[in-house]
Amino acid sequence: MPKQDPYAALRFREFNIFLLVRFFLVFAWSMQFIVIEWEVYSITKDPWSLGLIGLMEVIPAVSMALFAGHVVDQREKRNLLAICIAFFSLISFGLFFLTSPQITANWSQQSILYSIYGLVFFGGFLRSFFGPTIFSLIALIVPKKIYPNAATWSSSTWQTATILGPAFAGFTINWIGVHWSLCIIFGLVLLSFIIVFFIEKKPILNPKIGENVWKSLGEGLLFVYNEKAVLGALTLDMIAVLFGGAVALLPVFAQDILEVGSQGFGMLRAAPAVGAVLTMLITAYIPISKNAGLKLLGAIFGFGVCIIIFGLSTMFWISLIALFFSGVFDGVSMVIRQTILQLKTPDEMRGRVASVNSMFVGSSNELGAFESGLTAKLMGTVNAVVFGGTMTLITVITTGLASPTFRKLDLTEDMKAHSEQES
User: Fold this and answer.
1) What is the pTM of this model?
2) How is the chain split into domains, by residue range?
3) Which of 212, 256, 274, 411 is the S-S candidate for 289 at Cβ 3.0 to 4.6 Å?
4) Over the stretch 302-324, which tens digit does the pLDDT of each residue have?
């Protein structure tokens, strides 16, 4: 097998533009989520309210996911991404408006809170389209043989933005307040809207344009069910993210347990992403396709251990280190999962498969936030985090014992096959 070029995907101009668009979008989205979390908890002082943020987003995201995948497979991807960004700008402006001095002075806190939840709910619908569109667009920008490298750089860009977004949010909340922090977010979304048009329109590769929506959705679900490598990776990661959603409770830890304020909150929120992006940059040089199944199981097990340590810690630096290493393990998991999806999914089904992925993994982040808020309400914040980490470990052990085929999963031959097809 030829020596791996760690910068293969970056040699394509449009891919670099795509990374810039994705960076601004994820930076803005992750920053916005942090600001919302901070504002909501400041209003309510109730961890249950943080769980509701996740619930408000996961309901529309799950209910619309499969339909969104069908739409993505039927439409041109560049313009569809631009439409998604335009709607994102409306949400950002709405939040900026809700936190203005005129509104906060004349509206009740309950009215503002419900309005925030309403915009988050709308964002859930929008997010169901974002994931499949971005996943499908990558495949139209770079050749198949460098999909793993493109997945690494795309995921690294995503994680870098999730490092800087929360940290910057913590800084701006402390410096200029919630309202003007949301103004910055609105500006970043507009910037990404302009940049996306530097990417050329792409062909629609689906030969079944106009296909009955129910038949189309059925084909997508059937493919995921029959492709055991895809199904196993999605299921494992979904359950781990669902029960390992400790980050949803970070405002509670920052304000009430560790007592580190908004800047410490930003550091805690960014720590997992720091670990993840460093790991993913390393994987650009060291491929992880060999023994991918075992590596994925090991990575999620390590993630669960870190979540338990974080839950038990009462010292800021121990908590920070635990979250950092949870990100290291999560970075390995993310690259392996994205590589499996890119290598195993046919071009004409990328939107639908990515939608199933968003249902399994993307939405489980929000559902995990709801689970964390609910268990924190029932058993206390610390016990809720430890419970989630323990359930993650049980899931990994059960999967490893019950699925020897997944343990033996190796992607080396798939990468060779794609390389030979395009050489």
Assistant:
1) 0.70
2) 9-199+212-422
3) 411
4) 998 999 998 888 888 898 999 99
